[in-house]
Amino acid sequence: MRHTIETIGRVVSPYTQKFGIARQPGLVSAAEVSIILDPCFNEDAVRGLENFGYIWLHFIFHGVLDEGWSPLVRPPRLGGKRKMGVFATRSPHRPNHLGLSLLKLEGIDCADGVKIRCSGADLLDGTPVVDIKPYIPFVEAKPDAAAGFAGEAPPLLDVVWQYDGTWLSDGLKRLISQSVAQDPRPAYQDIPERIYVMEIAGLAVKFRIEGRTAVILSAEAV
User: Which positions fall inside the TsaA-like domain (predicted)?
Assistant: First the structure.
């Protein structure tokens, strides 16, 4: 018997375009999001969730639904040159376009609907949510497990602010710096003179990358 999966809510995220989103959860701790549950869910649906430190978020990669999928993909961690089976990667280009993120739970507000606040997100604004589960460390933490080609965190870029950005809050600066430090460029691209533009938190951030250093050139309201 076939069953249709219904969404239960949406994500409000500072990432408003795919370019610049952290490629894994937890890499950008300053990336804070809110999960807004649909009105049919009230505080009963999240009772007890506040006692957990992290949650598993099941979602749909809605930004690539029209791009289809392939049995072989080129993971950025491998320089975009080697192909791996889609089920050996976390590529968004999957047969069912389902994603899974482990997010730090920051709080739950139920005053006007249910809003779950999390950090360390790798989610596009408007992401449809299909399920939420608590993270249980004694069952799910396997620090000695084999990790294939992703055995360690990717190296970070050094970030230098050429733009003074005095009007930006410390939180916004952290979000921009941590996001750019992940090196959002396609793995095959290394053009020192190119200026990149990343839309984040309502800002168009311009930067260039020279070697292992990213230079922030400007951050203006979109």
Answer: 5-144
Question: Which helix (H) or strand (E) covers residue 9, if one does?
Answer: strand 9-12
DSSP SS3 for 177: helix
The SS3 assignment for 146 reads coil
Going by C-alpha positions, the residue among 100, 136, 123, 107 that lies closest to residue 46 is 107
φ, ψ for residue 66, nearest 5 deg = -90, 5
Strand boundaries in 13-63, DSSP class E: 33-37, 54-60
**Rounded to whole angstroms, how far apart are CA atoms 2 and 156?**
44
Average pLDDT over residues 100-122: 97
Two structure tokens written together for 137: 């460390």
Cβ neighbour number for residue 31 with a 10 Å cutoff: 26
**Superfamily holding 9-140:** YaeB-like (2.40.30.70)
Residue 140 is given by DSSP the state H
pLDDT given at position 3: 76
All structural domains of the chain with their residue ranges? 9-140, 158-221
